[in-house]
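Backbone-to-sequence.
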């Protein structure tokens, strides 16, 4: 029995609003920026985000229950790309041309994509990875902020976001240099723990 269910596993519970909010916060900009990078307009990308999240809500149980489920990020990325392809197909369709809903690529699981559609593209993979790392770090920082005092968080942010030296931080905040070193070291380690935890939960 799991002692600490992963975020993905907890998504099965629609009543767990905190988990869904954390998941949405982590992935919303991730999916949006990928859609924009693929050439979609702002409104198209926003619509795609909502569509993809509805698909995740409908299918997360299927993904979590599979023995050979593979990477969630790959699964999510395929959902996004399917949606982009489907949107472009509909945009190219002539006015009045019929369209069968059963022909939608979403009727198949994302990991059964035709290979000719999804050849690995190095630039695309790098774009996904860079955006993912940024979102994980942001989410880890939000978790860390909930765990430490405002003053300790300020020390960490001044050092790593503003680039202040530890001597300057100690002087400006009047907390002593040894304390400043200790706070920075402790929070750096905790951020690494939170970052690893998120990556383990969402891989």
């Amino acid at each position: 029995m799991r002692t600490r269910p992963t975020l993905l596993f907890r998504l099965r519970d629609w009543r767990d609003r905190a988990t869904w909010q954390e998941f949405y916060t982590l992935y919303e900009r991730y999916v949006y920026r990928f859609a924009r990078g693929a050439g979609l307009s702002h409104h198209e990308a926003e619509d795609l985000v909502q569509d993809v999240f509805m698909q995740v809500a409908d299918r997360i149980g299927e993904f979590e229950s599979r023995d050979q489920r593979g990477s969630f990020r790959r699964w999510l990325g395929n959902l996004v790309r399917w949606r982009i392809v489907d949107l472009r197909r509909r945009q190219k369709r002539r006015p009045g041309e019929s369209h069968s809903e059963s022909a939608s690529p979403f009727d198949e699981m994302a990991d059964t994509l035709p290979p000719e559609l999804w050849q690995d593209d190095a630039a695309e993979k790098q774009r996904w990875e860079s955006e993912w790392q940024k979102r994980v770090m942001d989410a880890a920082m939000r978790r860390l902020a909930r765990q430490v005092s405002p003053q300790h968080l300020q020390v960490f942010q001044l050092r790593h976001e503003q680039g202040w030296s530890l001597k300057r931080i100690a002087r400006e905040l009047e907390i002593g240099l040894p304390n400043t070193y200790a706070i920075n070291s402790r929070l750096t380690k905790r951020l690494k723990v939170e970052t690893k935890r998120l990556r383990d939960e969402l891989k």
